[in-house]
Design goal:
The protein is an alpha+beta fold. Helices cover 35% and strands 42% of the residues.
């Protein structure tokens, strides 16, 4: 029963995040969250803390306005004091040059009493780096 409830909560959370309401992810993060996003800097990061995580997530949604993230699968195991959730995601966004960014990601989460304490995301960083380059090239010049 616990796993079914947790799966439903994860799905509900991703429905909100997927439409741009990323603050709900930050709200579930423990103050000492360990976050890892695979890839080369500045895309790839390994950071600690809810505030650093909030800054990184905000940056992603600023880089890719209109980003849509869809949860396609979730697996949950463990107990409330040490839950593991594995999530498969599909990402899409319209880039500044009119092209479409499409990607998929896997996320390995560790939850403790409903709080996210560890988050490891693996995404096709080649596609993300290419999208980032488009966004930077198309950005209006600062005045």
């Amino acid at each position: 029963m616990y796993h079914a409830i947790t799966r439903a909560r994860v799905r509900a959370l991703w429905r909100r995040i997927g439409t741009g309401e990323y603050q709900v992810a930050v709200a579930t993060a423990a103050p000492d969250l360990e976050f890892h996003f695979a890839g080369p800097p500045p895309i790839g990061v390994h950071l600690r803390g809810r505030d650093a995580f909030a800054d990184w997530v905000r940056g992603v949604f600023e880089l890719l306005p209109g980003l849509r993230i869809t949860l396609t699968d979730v697996v949950v195991t463990g107990w409330p004091w040490r839950t593991t959730a594995v999530v498969k995601l599909r990402l899409t966004a319209r880039l500044a040059d009119g092209s479409v960014y499409e990607n998929q990601a896997m996320q390995w989460l560790r939850l403790r009493w409903g709080r996210m304490v560890y988050d490891d995301v693996i995404e096709d960083t080649h596609a993300l780096v290419a999208a980032r380059e488009v966004q930077i090239r198309q950005a209006p010049a600062a005045t």
